[in-house]
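Justification of resources, computational component.

The compute hours requested in this renewal are based largely on the per-chain cost of generating structure records like the one below. Each record pairs the submitted sequence with a full structure-token output. That output is archived, and it is also reused by downstream analysis tasks.
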Amino acid sequence: MIRNILGSIVALAGAAAAVLSPFRDWYDGRLGRQYRIADLFNGISGARPGLWGSVWLPLLFAAAVTVVGVVLRSRLLVACAGVVVLGFTVLWMVRQGQATGGLTVAADGSGLQVGVATAAVGGALMLVGAAVMSGRRGRHGHPGRVDRPRPYPAPGSDDPDTWPPTQEPGPSVQTSPLPEPEADPYTGPEAQDPRRPPGRSGPSGG
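The structure output for this chain reads:
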């Protein structure tokens, strides 16, 4: 529980940083929201797009995914949002480096500025938050799995006996506590008296 709370706070802080970063300077005094999404794939241009056509849009989408992941306690969603933020940030840095022949950081405010650093930190915080979160747990403590209640069996459904008694397996139908009488082991045509010696079947006639 505590891990989920701490991870959620860290992930939401990263989402907020990612959303706010395009409103800060990214490179040489140019705001992040002044870069088109298409510039990340076609190369940096001097066009100034609207807010919904700028790099702010994918960062806003990643922040929304983070909020959903926190509500659902889904580490996967939060981690995917962090990957999206870092991916767009790195892609912008690659395109900007191609346009200017390299990336620089200068004390006079030229080169890379705080906006792009804020976006990178925001994506990293999302990944850290996903790692800290413990995710959803079922009744047996397994993360990511919620146990569903099993249906209650109908009474007598596990009794294999039927009525009247049949030859199917099941508990004995004998109701008497006394043992069953054993059958006579001798099954021949003539019963022999145990008191007579063998070979004599009766009194001899004289």
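Residues 75-100 form the longest helix (26 residues). The chain has five helices and two strands.
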